[in-house]
Amino acid sequence: MPATLDTWQQKLESHFLQLALSRPVVEFPVFALEHDLTTDDIQEIRDLLRQRLRARLPLRQHWLVWVICAAELGYGYDGQEYWQSFEDQMPLWREQASRRSLRSWFSQFQKAYGGIIPEGPWAEHFSVIAWPITHAILPRDLQGQFARLLYTLRFEIASLPRSSEIIGEFIRSHSPSGSSRFENLLEQTGLTGRLVLALAQQESSQEAPVIHPPTLARITSDLEQRQSSRDWLRDARAVLRNARIQAGTSFGSGARQPVSTGQPAQHLPRTVGLLARQSAAGEWTLGVAYPDFQMILGACGMAPEALSAADVILADQPSSSMPARALLALSRRTRAIDSLSDVVGKPLCTLKPALEPLSSYLNELRLEGSRSWLLRVQGDGSARQVRGHHVRAGETYLYLSQAPVPDNIVQDLGLRLQTSRTKGISIYHLDVPDQLGRWYLEALARLNIGHALRTRVEAFGLVPRLADTEDATIWLPGEPIILRLSSDTEVSTYTIGVDGADWTTIQASTETETLVSIGALPLGQHVVEVRATAEGAVSARRDEQLQAERISIEVRAPGNWHEAARQQSGFRLSLTPPDARLPDLVSGNASLDIIGPSNRIAIVSADCYDINGHQADHIALGNVALPPKPRSVHQLVARLGIEPASERIETAPRVDISVQIEELGLQSVSLRQRVEPLRWKMQTGAGNAIARLVDEAGAEEEVIVDRYDIRAPGTRIPASRDECQDGLAIGPPGALLSAKFKGRRYSALISVPGKITSLSDLGIEIRLGSRQDNIHAVRALIPLYRLWAQARTLGPLAPLRKSMVIDAIDRQIASIACGRDWAWRLLAIRSSSDPALERIQREVSQLRGFGYRMRVTNWVSPEGQISPFEAFRRSVSNYKITDDPALVTIAFQLAFEPGAVRLDLPGSRGSSDILNRLSQTQALMRGAYLARTMRGMQMRELLSSEAA
Amino acid sequence: MSIQAISAHEAIEKVAISLQVPPATDLNTPVVCQALRRAVSFLAPCPRHELERAVLKSLAGLDADGQTEALIEEATESLLVYGDILEMRPLSADLWREAAITLRPAPPSFVVRADRSIVLVGIAGDDITPLVGELRTRVEYRGPLRILRPRSSEDLRSLLKDLGLIELSESTWLRLPPAEPAPAYIAKWKADLSAAPAQVTEIDGLRVLAPAARIVFYRDRWIEPDASLDGMFVGRRRQRYGKDIWCLVDLAAGRPQRFLDLFSVGDRLRPCDVAWRIQMAIDAQAGTPQLFRLRESEGAFFVDFPNPLPSWAARKLMISGERADPHRAISTYALRGNDINEINEFLRQRLWLVPEGCAGEGEARR
Q1: Closest-CA distance of chain B to residue A569, Å
Q2: Does the distance separating the beta carbons of B175 and A568 come in below 8 Å?
Q3: Please, are residues A602 and A624 in contact by the beta-carbon 8 Å criterion?
Q4: In this predicted model, what pLDDT tens digit does every residue of B264-313 receive, in sequence order?
Q5: pLDDT in the model for residue A699
Q6: What is the mean pLDDT of chain A?
Q7: Cβ(A273)–Cβ(A387) under 8 Å?
Q8: Which of A286, A496, A561 to mutate to test the interface with B (most CBs of B within 10 A)?
Q9: How many contacts, defined by CB atoms under 8 Å, are there between A and B?
Q10: pTM above threshold 0.90
Q11: Which of A549, A806, A882, B299 has its CA 20 to 30 A from that of A908?
């Protein structure tokens, strides 16, 4: 006999009760997806629920069944429209229940079984949808991204304590920029942490499961559908499992807990070392080895984005600054310096303005040493600073001194003066002989250089990544650390220890060198100490122990190879300023710079990504020859502001601008756009369009929807929210739809062109209605301007129609503020050589000089490097047009940016008062509008001359 | 922790495993190539001699007979030829600009060959080869090449793209210069050379390629200029550190009048590739074109080249076939019979080469 909904409800209640009892609730909450139902069960349940909806029977008694259905839909959610899909699957649902009902049922689930509570900013913003999505654990659509991230961070996660919160927080803070939905998932740090623990322990039967095993098996199976995801997951799990086996019940020692105190930690480096590189011609250049600024920011409790607020000045380039984010590019890298004297004794870099606590730390970060430096020439040909000023027999060094070395020492030590490209320093080449006589040691001592019989420890097999000092190397997990040991005298044994433990004694090879495998070391900093016992007394104490050799080894996780490929690439792509938004780039307020070999062709394109991070669109923008001519890259990028590209990018939460240069590869800058919980979608039909309101805010009655037709843009027509959610038919030429929720507007201009057979069909008669033509009408026109200016554009010709409406409103404001006849004549001017300008200028003010000044001022780059507003303010003051600063501001804004005008300025007596005063100073308004017109023409002339 | 003394062979074995190349207890081309890829991923941008010296030093002690050094040089050359490593002039944005030519790892990419097999190119930072899981175990290490072969009905291209690799079209990977007649090619270089400033001093360590008519073997063609030499010659001039610089020199009675260091526009081609092609054009114009030898052995077709081939030509041959052990030549390639005519035409049009036996009597140059 087929089960009824009552039976399913009871069965599920029983299942979740058992599950809740088996789980320590606080640490491991229950998810609705852990229902233990088969695909057939779920289908059967859906059918039963639909029957019940059709019969219009109460729904509440099967609340748990509804919760399971909602979570199942969340599991398959593709990020597009949760509620629309829900209602498609459950017709008539909205008539008998609401989103709030569903939220209350999830809340009931949480209380009854210790269910998970959605957390994070996204969950607050999307307060209803957050429940079914969170209870879906890892929706199918995000599984690939999660597997990839888990793979990328596998070694770091393996070194963390086995705490879901710590793991989740680590993943969140180390995630590269992905899709909005994926970031939302990562905000649920408890959830992702538990998921990692579950995936790591899946094959172990010794621990209580974190996620119901059949549910986890289902997620894993879905995840492995795609080969890349399967491979990422398997490799990641192998590392996690291995770490768990080695560390017992915890992944790692917990040494890598992400901790930020808000104060620079004491262990942060306070000094940096010098490095020297030699050119093919034999000249040396010095460089500074910068520390890991990413790590330093973390220790200061600051995010990398904080650097956007400052510039940095490097000690050797005191007269120039660059965006402080450039510090991230310098992290753990060496950079050539022009002059050593500019660097010695000074902070290596200074932030302007200061960003505390980072600035305090940077103020102490200096070059180690002050008068002389000893650098050892290493295997890669570079020389790195020796801390301790001791030399070894048979090695080659550079001795750096701010003062020339006396001739007698030069002769005694056989020093050879080198050519230095870096100013302010003398560089000597020092070849230390295999046997050191007393006279030699004395000569060394005069340079404060010591010597001791030592063991020589070098890496064998793989080239070591050298850190900023000569005795520190960096390795990856899985790279065998093999050391080649030799010494300055004959030895019988070597005793090797790692981190002060595991001391092992090895017979020295009868040949000259002994190879020793250290084995795999866990992530983190380690010290390998090698003690050699000589065959005979060698020390001042007359014993047989050579001075112990200590080398630093850092084992770090592999870096993201995409980032490595970008950094090492044969060309550079950068966005200036780094935090620019897409509209800035399109408008030319931000720039995309390509630095690469000349005479190459760069192919520029844009890729739009949907809310899930999937590529939704590819837009070829064109080619540019390197080096790019001024504005040539901008001319390509500006195409994104023109249809049809403009519409395609406007609805994309992420747009990547990519540049590919043949075999040199591809680089991208990623630009993010906010995705609103309320948004408009457009579907086209025959001759009309359907506009639909996508509402994921969980809002019900609070949403107010209005419609404004393009032909009558000032006339508000209230619309039904339900009707808009179902789909509202829009006829030609289109309309603006606005949903207002919690004081914010979410608006879109839907353009429906109709049949276009000639250019004249593009024209639309726009009527702003029977508005007053006195100055007080401006009060209503400003928010109307804002409404249309801020609306997103959907559909063919939408940007064109938007600008037509905005122009109409602007013209109306200008007519009111300046007088209709004057304003219309001004707005008809197209060229600065138009003879009509003479009369317009004369009619600005009775003080003729003011109109002339407005006409001849360079508004693109005003004299004295001041802003256009400041140039306007000074002219108004000079010609005594008004002494009211509020009026000057409003007049300028009204002309240049009407949407920015706020009539409730501090100190004013209300908008009526301001408008009255504005109407009495028409010269001020006309001056501002003439300035704007002239600026537009000057800008066009500048662009055409640049293009020429 | 397991600290233990090991032999050099055991050390190589551990290194090979960590580099994910086939197990080996002695150094071989795949191990050295992978060690070079790994090293350049963090040393770059760096001059070639720095990379080679660093790898050689890490293997010091195995080089009693100097073979390791030769192996490293040859492996570096192969990686440059096949595009794993790029040879470029420094960028203005580089933190260091100490060398005229620096090496950079190419971005992880792949090229689909005629037989659907895929050549992996480039270096993925710490990962070296950006493959995971089972796919990583399927990589065939054929000398300096990494090859993946798709299984039936497997969409390997999509999978590699999914992992973030860039697909290089054949033309992008090959970087072929345009086909043109040898005289036209020489004329362009002559014009460039005549525009170079007059040379008033001797060029340190200058050696030039002697006319083909005088000397048979490529290696023996390198001579110090003598009074009998007049005209434009491909040469190499010494620099204090690093490899000699390829140049073009105008000699009058063996004395340099002008010289030009050889670079290609946009660093598309390596200086040696440019130099070798100019020499091929000079030889062709002099009526002594360079030769190649076509032969069939046990059902397979081989092409032997007694002179060095530009990298782009080597890549073109790799698209159609495989590199084979050199047979009385500097390089030898095994080709499919179907491709012989196309390759023949390619060598004639782009490098003005002539198959042995077709160049006229008595011109058995190697």
Answers
A1: 7
A2: no
A3: yes
A4: 777 788 899 999 999 999 999 999 999 999 998 877 899 999 999 999 99
A5: 57
A6: 83
A7: yes
A8: A561
A9: 236
A10: no
A11: A806
